[in-house]
Amino acid sequence: MRIVYLGTPDFAVLPLKKLIENTNHQIVAVVTNHDKPVGRKQILTPPPVKVLAKEKGIPVYQYAKIRVEGVDDLKALNPDLMITCAFGQILSQEILDIPKFGVINIHASLLPKYRGASPIHYAILNGEEKTGISIMKTDIGIDTGDVILQKEIDIKNDETCGELFERLSVLGADAILECLPTIFDNSAKFVKQDEERATYSKIIKKENAIIDWNDSAENIYNKIRAFNPAPVAFCYYCGNPFKIYKASVSNLTGEVGKVIKCENELIIACGKGSLSLSVVQKAGGKPMNIKDFLLGNKFEVGQDFN
């Protein structure tokens, strides 16, 4: 079967790799977003999916707006199926109608929970105990299509977003390979989503990562996990951003936003409970574990992190 694969970030790489390795299917093209400047030096960098496609000799198409630029190319490719995975653009009905078997999507949540752009972040942010992968038929809505297959996993207590991304990418690769034979032999069962249970995850922005110490220690702990490795939860200390990569909940109490212990560990009081910081980064520095950080940075009980 002729498949066109649409994806952009690291999350979409392993499913593509597994599809390429499966000789029952031919990946005739990969569609992704344009190369973007990355880092302080703004080096023009290709999307991870493009890198893999080029290594495997697969044609790559890049569009700023696929609905405007990509229709004729996709029609010429004559795919039996299109697969999307964290592609980052909404497809038009004209594009959805091109493949014989339609378009299916690898989505990193147990739909209808966490439709939208950031399902993994929000699952951790909201303290979910479980998440998973949904394989769904794409329609004109945002992750509203019928679900073909779901696979569920537990979220570990201390798991960061980056760690969960990796596990879900593996699960997504397994799920799409399991699902394809049922699509092509018309045995797949399409289950409508329960609209009353639907929730949405918005695009994560830097301002979402600001810590409010009036919140509970548990909620702030979840925020730190959800925004690691990016955009990284932060507060302000002495007027400068202070990033927190890892922390743990403590039962000590004190005045909100202030240091309540600073010998061998750094504990900040929250609206409920407190947080013991584990890996931090001050402005102009690099991430450091807290013991090393305290060797060169002195704090006093009562110092303010608000």
SSE blueprint and pairings:
Layout: E1 2-7, H1 13-21, E2 26-32, E3 36-38, E4 43-45, H2 48-55, E5 60-62, H3 66-69, H4 71-77, E6 81-85, H5 93-96, E7 103-107, E8 115-116, H6 119-125, E9 130-137, E10 147-154, H7 161-184, E11 200-201, H8 217-226, E12 234-237, E13 240-250, E14 259-261, E15 266-269, E16 274-282, E17 288-289, H9 290-296
Helix pairs in contact: 1-7, 6-8
Short structural summary:
With 306 residues, the chain is of the alpha/beta class. The chain has helices at residues 13-21, 48-55, 66-69, 71-77, 93-96, 119-125, 161-184, 217-226, 290-296; strands at 2-7, 26-32, 36-38, 43-45, 60-62, 81-85, 103-107, 115-116, 130-137, 147-154, 200-201, 234-237, 240-250, 259-261, 266-269, 274-282, 288-289. Helix content is 26%, strand content 28%.
Structure description:
By secondary structure, this protein is an alpha/beta fold. It contains 9 helices and 17 strands. The protein is elongated. About 35% of the residues are buried. The mean pLDDT is about 95.
Number of strands: 17
Count of helix runs: 9
Hey, roughly how much beta strand do the residues contain? 25-35%
String of helices and strands? EHEEEHEHHEHEEHEEHEHEEEEEEH
- Measured as a percent range, the helix fraction is 25-40%
Mean pLDDT: 95
* Span between termini: 58 Å
Extract low-pLDDT stretches: none
Radius of gyration: 22 Å
Structural class comes to: alpha/beta
Strand order of the largest sheet: 5-2-1-6-7-9-10
Q: Biggest β-sheet, characterized?
A: 7 strands, mixed
